[in-house]
Amino acid sequence: MKRANRLLSRRTVLRGMAGGTAVALGLPLLEIFLNDNGTALAQGAPLPLRFGTWFWGCGMNPDRWAPADEGDEFDLPPELLALQPVRDQVSILSGFNTILDGRPNLPHWTGVMATMTGSAPNFEPEVPGPTFDVAISKAVGTTTRFRSLEITCTGVPTNSYSRESQSIVNASAVSPLQLYNRIFGPEFHDPKDGEFVPDPKTLLRQSVLSAVQGDTARLVQRLGSHDRQRLDQYFTSLRQLERQIEISLTPPNLEACRRPGAPSGEDPGTDLPQAISTHDLMTDLLVFALLCDQTRVFNMLFSWGTSALRLPGVDISHHELTHDEIVDTELGYQPRSTEFVLESMQAFANFVERLATTPEGAGTLLDNCLILGHSESSFAKSHDTTRIPVLIAGRAGGRVQPGLHVRGNGDPITRVGLTIQQIMGLPISEWGTGSMQTSRAVTDILV
User: Fold this and answer.
1) Is residue 23 part of a domain?
2) 3-state secondary structure of 288
3) Is 259 contained in some domain?
4) N or C, fewer C-beta in 10 Å, the chain?
5) Are residues 300 and 171 both part of a single domain?
6) Which domain holds residue 37?
7) What is the mean pLDDT of residues 224-249?
8) Would you state the pLDDT for residue 230?
9) Which pLDDT score is estimated for 72?
């Protein structure tokens, strides 16, 4: 039976005032916005299609990362065991190469630029062309509040591979509070102003939910029981997230508590547990931004190409370990460096699972996403830009079949970028330059 009185637009927001500033809170896709099957908007438009990248630095160990078998029947290798809970949601693309055409291999730069621009750079920090996420955002991000959102988990705003050009960097949000205020509040920290330092005076003086309380009451009167339940779950999650952010930035009121001196030479945000915590909070905020159609393009950076991640109390970073640690002759790899690979893959799995367990319409948020997980090298000790690791998650609104392993067999990494752009609706038939120019999509993952 058709539902009547569809008087609410997908663009409906809740409005209010917080601290004398107007606040607008987007809503998730409630039933009242959708057709009777929950597969499209009530007016017939498809559900929003999103694209995102998820990057980790310093690669992996190719023989322990790539599955032995192709297709959908393969065993997860040691460095991908963390993907087991989301195995059917992720495809693994191995054996795709950067082809230099006589250019130098610029450590930790060549691989990612080739993947994202279709061309190997001549020098660092050359950006041979706009990264393809920028092209996608210009195509699908024109109706959203943010054309794209860039996020880093280790505290450096310039750590972003989203580039209009060499001189135009789409700077990253560096803290959950900053991202929260950008999405929900009036406070916005411009990265060019220097390192972000949270101001306790801005810490959620009045929550967004409190600010829109009056508008919420009026909306609820127009919703059915299922939408009311869905809205209550949404608000409960947002309230919990507000509380998590507040707690994370509020010092404990303990008499014995004293702030220790900062370790010499330590970069804030690079301790692995802190980066993981930041990643989890940022992921929750990103989910809200996607559900509320605040953006349709994002770039999540778990660690930079020269990964500064380190274990608490340990001076040497992940990147330094890849150079200095000797390959264990019995194991065949660097055990301490590999710990960071395993943690990175666990973080990616958690990210995918968060989207896969978030309802949207008749499916999940992940069903309407296409996510590229990638790194800038394979074996970081030798700065190898062959066999670039690639993970593709999500169904892209039914356009992609996940759960496969596809071998590139030395083909250019640009086949991946061409495929992604075509899935996202860009009218291109070939992409890349020189020996990496290609017109061959990775059709194995297409429906």
Assistant:
1) yes
2) helix
3) no
4) N
5) yes
6) 1-46+207-248
7) 76
8) 78
9) 97
- Report the side by side order of strands in the sheet with 388-393: 149-152, 297-301, 50-55, 369-374, 388-393, 90-96, 405-407
Domains identified in the chain, total number: 2
Beta-strand pair 21-26/13-18:
antiparallel
Q: Which of 122-126, 213-217, 241-245 has the lowest mean pLDDT?
A: 241-245
- Asked if residue 63 and residue 18 are part of one domain, the reply reads no
Within-domain flag for 257: no
- What average pLDDT does range 279-288 have in this prediction? 92
pLDDT of 325 higher than 80: yes
Return the CA Rg of the chain: 22
> 80-103 pLDDT, tens per residue?
999 999 999 999 999 999 999 999
- Of the candidates 146, 154, 147, which has an alpha carbon nearest to the alpha carbon of residue 133? 147
Assess whether 220 and 307 both reside in one domain. no
pLDDT given for residue 192 in this prediction: 45
Beta strands in 137-187 (DSSP E): 149-152
Residue 232, in any domain of the structure: yes
Point out which residues pair with 173 in neighbouring strands: 151
Main-chain phi, psi angles of 317, to 5 degrees: -90, 170
- Residues with Cβ within 8 Å of 320's Cβ and at least 6 positions away in sequence, in order, are none
CA-CA distance, 340 to 311, in Å (whole number)?
A: 9
- Which one-letter amino acid corresponds to residue 433? T
Residue 280's domain is classified under what CATH number? 3.40.720.10
CB within 8 Å of 88: residues ≥ 6 apart: 402, 403
Residues 162 and 89 in one domain: yes
Claim to verify: residue 69 and residue 212 sit in the same structural domain: no
Return all residues near 278 (Cβ < 8 A) that are at least 6 apart: 153, 154, 155, 175, 176, 269
The reply to whether 184 and 306 lie within a common domain is: yes
Q: What DSSP letter does each residue of 78-125 carry, written as one string?
A: GGGGGGGGGGGGEEEEEEEB---TT----TTTHHHHHHHHSS--SSTT
